[in-house]
Amino acid sequence: MRFVQSSSLLRNVLIVDAAFSGASGMTLLAAAAPLAALFGLPWGLVAGAGAFLLPYAIFVGALGLSAQLPRGLVWFVVAGNALWTIESLLLLAQTAPTPVGVTAIVGQAAVVAAIGAAQAIGLTRSSLRPA
C-alpha cells in the first residue's frame, strides 16, 4: 500500500468535506420531513442521505487529521465525491423537485464537485512515502 505525506491543502479540504458533510447530514436528518416537502423529494431519500453523511463525515474528518494517508483511500474519497455529484444531477431527471429543490441539489452538487477537485489537487501535491 502506498502512503502519502498529506499536503496542507489535502488535510484542510478533507476537514472542510467533513464539516460540510456533517452539517448537511445533521440538517437533513433533523428536518427530513419539512425539507422533503420543500424540495419535492421523497422523505426516505432526504433522511437516507442525512444518515449516510454522518458516518462519512467522521471517516473523512479522521483522514483530515492524519499526516500520512493511504493514497488509494484518498482517491476513493475523491471518486465518491465525483459519484455523489453525478448522482445528484441524475436525481433531477429521476424526480420532480420543486424550484427550491433544484437549487439545493445543483448547489450542493457544485460544492461537492469543488471539494472533490480540491482533494485531487491536494493529493497530487502530497509526497509519496514508502509503506
Structure described in brief:
The chain has 131 residues and is mainly alpha-helical. The chain has helices spanning 8-30, 32-39, 43-64, 71-94, 99-124, and strands at residues 3-5, 68-70, 127-129.
List keywords for this structure.
7% strand, elongated, 131 residues, mainly alpha, three-stranded antiparallel β-sheet, single chain, 79% helix
Q: What is the topology, as strand order, of the major beta sheet?
A: 2-1-3
Number of domains: 1
Radius of gyration: 16 Å
Contiguous helical run count: 5
- List the quaternary state of the chains: single chain
End-to-end gap: 6 Å
The largest pleated sheet is described as: 3 strands, antiparallel
- What number is the mean pLDDT? 96
Q: What's the helix-strand series?
A: EHHHEHHE
Helix share, percent = over 70%
Structural class: mainly alpha
Strand content: 5-15%
Description:
By secondary structure, the chain is mainly alpha-helical. It has one domain. The chain has five helices and three strands. It has helices spanning 8-30, 32-39, 43-64, 71-94, 99-124; strands at 3-5, 68-70, 127-129. It has a three-stranded antiparallel β-sheet with strand order 2-1-3. Helix 1 (8-30) runs antiparallel to helix 5, helix 2 (32-39) crosses helix 3 (43-64) and helix 4 (71-94) runs antiparallel to helix 5 (99-124). The protein is elongated, with a radius of gyration of 16 Å.
Tell me the layout of helices and strands:
Layout: E1 3-5, H1 8-30, H2 32-39, H3 43-64, E2 68-70, H4 71-94, H5 99-124, E3 127-129
Antiparallel strand pairs: 1-2, 1-3
Helix pairs in contact: 1-3, 1-5, 2-3, 4-5
